[in-house]
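Supplementary Note 3. Input sequence used for the single-chain structure prediction.
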Amino acid sequence: MSGTLYLVAMPIGNLEDITLRALRVLKEVALIACEDTRHTRQLLEHHGIAARTISYHEHNERERAAELAEQLAQGTNIALVTDAGTPGISDPAYRLVALAVERGIPVVPVPGAAAFVCALAASGLPTDHFEFHGFLPARSSARRQALEVLRGAASTQIFYEAPRRLIETLEDVAEILGPTRPVVVAREVTKLHEEFLRGPAREVLATLRARAAVKGEITLLIGRAAEEAAPAAEAPSLAVRMKQLMREESLDEKAALKRVAREMKISRSEAYRLWQRVK
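The predicted structure, written as discrete structure tokens, is reproduced below.
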């Protein structure tokens, strides 16, 4: 008979956030596949678990998944863990799970913490309909394209973000989705310096800009789009002002759009959309 693959959720910060079932499984399996064996070893030693470990991370996932699937097929029970949270949620797991399913090997989730779920629950944003996307693209152009798609999203949008990119990302959110779009930055969830920053994008952005640095694990939540009253009156007035600036001040279209957006207190992308409507 084949072994069983257990997907064991680990604490995302507070070491007490691990279930009794998870600890039992980690004690009973023959092998624990870890994102970082050194990191996992600390938790195992804290709970007196003397188990054999092996590395399984994004850089060796392809080769190691085949190796572990073979051991599972031969009857070895294996627990897969990541440094924090639930395996497979923006962390390695998919390849091994897919191979196990393909071979008919039992895959058993051992539930526990997931950062985006904890952040959503405490965010104050609607939880009845949400979408989790993992990390936004690191490149500015790709990130802005991804945000453009969410302009009219009717559900809460959830992302993980690197602290070094957070301000840049919020600048894009404020420009593309609007400065009043509700956002929540959940930082260091369950840890000593846990923090929730809630408010319009421009206000949260201003708070973070005032800091010397942004640190920690970040979950970014973006509220649903408000039902827009179609700016029917704004489009013609924008068109009149655009033509005036291009005619009287010899501004090109891009410069005129930037000026009009500032005057009308709307984002440049919104000004562009209105201009295209009447152009």
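The mean pLDDT is 92. The chain is about 40% helix and 15% strand.
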